[in-house]
Amino acid sequence: MRILFLNGPNLNLLGTREPEKYGKLTLADIEARVRAKAVGMGLDVEFRQTNIEGELVTWIQEAQGRFDVIVLNAAAYTHTSVAIRDAIAAVQVPTIEIHLSNVHAREEFRHVSLIAPVCRGQIAGFGAGSYELALEASVIVKVAQKGA
Ligand code: DQA
């Protein structure tokens, strides 16, 4: 089973970016944790980050037929991007929305997710743990797809 982790704008700054909100781990640290857990679960993961909205759109489109699940931290684009929402809706790859912080406990503009209606579900508020939980969620989505 192949899982594509996509990370949006400013997540390349994790480690130094507002650590009280996002923690002290870098994105590379988080990737290492996810990879270690994925190996134990027999899962194949790919990790990418971009600050460019269109690049996320292209990667979502290209995931069709190549990945079983997309795990997406669209960062600020979560709250603004119709293009990313439409890309998720256009492909048949189940997508799980994740966030490090609990967006619902923060500013009001973060309570709105334009991508939530086209995602299978959302994991938010567990720091790096949100990424690790997304592996479990991916397996659940896949098993459900098989009709178990
Ligand atoms: C975030 C939450 C977003 O509101 C914010 O714009 C981010 C990170 C999170 O992981 O908590 O950049 O997606």
Description:
- The protein is of the alpha/beta class.
- It has one domain: Dehydroquinase, class II (Rossmann fold, 3-Layer(aba) Sandwich), CATH 3.40.50.
- It is built from 5 helices and 5 strands, in the order βααβαβαββα.
- It has helices spanning 19-22, 27-41, 53-63, 82-90, 128-145, and strands at 2-7, 44-49, 69-73, 95-99, 121-124.
- The chain has a 5-stranded parallel β-sheet, with helices on both faces.
- β3, α4 (82-90) and β4 form a beta-alpha-beta unit.
- α2 packs parallel to α5.
- It is globular.
- It starts with a strand and ends with a helix.
- Residues 10, 73, 75-76, 78, 99-101, 103, 110 line the site of 1,3,4-trihydroxy-5-OXO-cyclohexanecarboxylic acid (DQA).
Instruction: Report the principal-axis shape.
Output: globular
Strand order of the largest sheet: 2-1-3-4-5
Unique ligands: 1,3,4-trihydroxy-5-OXO-cyclohexanecarboxylic acid
Count every helix, treating DSSP H or I runs of 4 or more residues as helices: 5
Which radius of gyration do the C-alpha atoms yield? 14 Å
Q: Give the helices and strands as they follow along the chain.
A: EHHEHEHEEH
The amount of beta strand, in percent, is 15-25%
CATH class type: Alpha Beta
- How many strand segments? 5
Please give the CATH architecture. Answer: 3-Layer(aba) Sandwich
| Separation of the first and last Cα atoms | 16 Å
CATH homologous group name? Dehydroquinase, class II
Specify the structural class.
Answer: alpha/beta
Largest sheet report: 5 strands, parallel
Instruction: Tell me the count of domains.
Output: 1
Helicity level: 25-40%
Low-pLDDT runs: none
Q: Roughly what is the average pLDDT, rounded to an integer?
A: 97
Say what the CATH topology is: Rossmann fold
